[in-house]
Amino acid sequence: MHRKCHFEAGPQFMSDSSLLHSPQRGPMSDIEFRNYFLAYDVVIGIFVNSTETNAEYPRQGTPFDLKSLGPLESAEPSERIGCFYYIKPNYPGRSSHLCNAGFVVPPNSRGRGIGSLAGRSFLHVAPRLGYRGSVFNLVYATNEASMRIWDKLGFQRVGRIPSAGLLKTGSGEDEHYVDAHVIYGDFAKIAPPFV
């Protein structure tokens, strides 16, 4: 059964600093955001309790009661969403066993370990959806946090594309070309076993 999405605040998570490591040229409209991030069969969200700004997040899967978050509908999404990501086939047909994912960590959640938690979550969820591996086509070399996460989780850098993206500089005033890595993970080797 298809349910209507009531998530109305998506583009706000694509801040100016997010665009430093993103293929989007600027802020996205609501429609552009929905078409890019919410048009897939699987979207995973990691919610946080906004009062726990210094909370340490679990390193392994643990039982979780959604009631501990309190009433989600009474809070601003930017205060409760720690991260979300989609999973989709990276290629059609004979290579559809390889997936791709796109991750968004809002600025207020960065530096808290949520990106690592999302990466570990991805390693649990994607194989259970039937995927055998993952290919991230464009991880910009300037996205050091993402590179550290994938390296630590056992993914491999299998290619480098010179001048793959025209990205904004740290000041946001200028643009420059940066290289991108192609990242591959074989779930048989790096994903936790099914239990």
Automatic annotation (TrEMBL):
Gene3D superfamilies: 3.40.630.30. The lineage of its organism: Eukaryota, Fungi, Dikarya, Basidiomycota, Ustilaginomycotina. SUPFAM superfamilies: Acyl-CoA N-acyltransferases (Nat). GO terms for molecular function: acyltransferase activity, transferring groups other than amino-acyl groups. Residues 31-184 form the N-acetyltransferase domain. It comes from the Eukaryota. This is N-acetyltransferase domain-containing protein. GO terms for cellular component: nucleus.
